Design the sequence.
């Protein structure tokens, strides 16, 4: 029997499966000589069944995790909405169409996240222990190797030298495509982003679409920094009401915050805010790709205040306009209409009110 490789590109359940297709090969009485060059081409074609141009494949194995499910989403549009990856026997495989370099975020059962850098025709493997997720490795491409190196840097950093170590890594690896992700998530998305330093770091990176997008994000973040007034915005909430600058209360503080059904920290912030809902004007922006899961969380946590969900996730025009590129994220507006806080943690918000 000759076994040819067949690919099933269905994304049912978030799983890409590969199966052997059995093709009977008749036994011939005549011996056929195959030239060495032709044989090499045949073997190359058969080997290529493990990778396909225009697709990205992710597979791996976790110890101490027999059955389970991961969420996966993309902050830069590699996939639309939220997908799932099923784990069986500790193993999983996932394959998607992929036309350009981008980021996938794996959300584990404990709500921690891991970036995976996808690129056309590439295949990567995750190895790890479910009880020690910080020690996992992602192998198969230079970008994911760079991220492995960076994760070692932050694991070995102390709070006092974390920012310095991150900055040094970006300087030493400025050509790496993972640097925009690192800059955005570790130096920009905090409560006190250092805009001049971020611009300095971007200028070290290749001038391409990714760094260009990051520059736009910096401009939006700068326009919503502490002390500024909120930019003009308009959106429909889930009840069809128009929410805009006029929705900002004059007699109490307003918190515009980002949350999702798959991010525990953002739900914790929402619950903390809900305990003070009589003192605050709350505007929640949900970034789920579907309203179905959002509504389950809202019912569970008795969320009755203004909620916006356009099902575009981080591509939402409102999210981009307000520079809310991280989850959880928030903007706090004081009684005078000026921004008094940004991306504050739940404990910080409680002290503020």
Sequence:
């Amino acid at each position: 029997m000759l076994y040819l490789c067949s690919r099933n590109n269905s994304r049912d359940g978030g799983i890409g499966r590969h199966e052997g297709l059995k093709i009977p090969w008749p036994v011939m009485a005549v011996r056929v000589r195959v030239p060495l060059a032709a044989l090499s081409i045949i073997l190359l074609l058969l080997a290529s069944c493990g990778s396909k141009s225009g697709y990205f494949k992710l597979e791996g194995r976790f110890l101490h995790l027999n059955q389970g499910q991961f969420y996966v989403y993309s902050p830069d549009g590699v996939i639309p909405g939220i997908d799932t990856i099923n784990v069986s026997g500790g193993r999983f495989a996932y394959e998607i169409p992929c036309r350009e370099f981008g980021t996938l975020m794996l959300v584990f059962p404990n709500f921690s996240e891991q970036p995976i850098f996808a690129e056309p025709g590439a295949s990567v493997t995750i190895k790890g222990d479910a009880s020690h997720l910080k020690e996992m490795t992602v192998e198969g491409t230079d970008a994911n190797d760079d991220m492995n190196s960076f994760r070692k840097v932050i694991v070995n950093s102390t709070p006092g030298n974390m920012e310095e170590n991150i900055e040094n890594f970006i300087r030493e690896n400025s050509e790496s495509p993972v640097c925009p992700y690192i800059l955005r998530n570790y130096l920009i998305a905090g409560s006190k982003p250092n805009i001049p330093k971020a611009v300095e770091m971007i200028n070290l990176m290749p001038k391409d679409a990714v760094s260009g997008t990051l520059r736009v994000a910096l401009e939006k973040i700068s326009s919503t920094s502490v002390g500024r007034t909120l930019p003009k915005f308009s959106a429909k909430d889930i009840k069809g009401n128009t929410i805009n600058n006029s929705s900002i209360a004059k007699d109490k503080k307003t918190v515009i915050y980002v949350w999702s059904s798959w991010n525990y920290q953002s739900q914790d912030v929402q619950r903390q805010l809900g305990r003070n809902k009589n003192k605050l004007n709350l505007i929640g922006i949900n970034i789920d790709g579907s309203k179905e899961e959002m509504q389950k969380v809202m019912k569970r946590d008795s969320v009755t205040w203004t909620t916006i969900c356009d099902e575009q996730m981080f591509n939402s025009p409102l999210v981009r306009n307000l520079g809310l590129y991280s989850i959880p994220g928030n903007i706090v507006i004081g009684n005078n209409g000026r921004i008094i806080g940004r991306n504050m943690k739940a404990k910080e918000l409680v002290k503020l009110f």
Notes: DSSP finds ten helices and 17 strands in the chain. Residues 1-34, 36-50 have pLDDT under 50 and may be disordered. The first strand starts at residue 2 and ends at 8. Residues 172 and 288 are 36 Å apart (CA to CA).
